[in-house]
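Re: beginner question about structure tokens

> Can someone show what the tokenized structure looks like for a real chain? I only ever see the sequence side.

Sure, here's an example I had lying around. Input first:
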Amino acid sequence: MDRKMVRMDRNELAAQTAQRVADEIKARGVKVSWLCEQTGIPRVTLHRRLTGQTPFNLSELDRIATALHVSTTELLVAA
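And the corresponding structure tokens:
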């Protein structure tokens, strides 16, 4: 597999993960500001992640999953 293909796959996974997190935020009826407080993730960082500008790292996904009462795996598997 060439590098361009791998990069597209990573970008797609990042976008799908961001969408999954956004869907969970909406489903739980919480505000992004609340999630920032609960996770310690700065608002600007969370915004960049949710808009797909930069991918989530595993630590961030773990903290988000804990705050939303879902497993980290659920955030990734759905993506």
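Each token stands for a local structural state, so reading them left to right follows the chain. Residues 3 and 9 are 10 Å apart (CA to CA).
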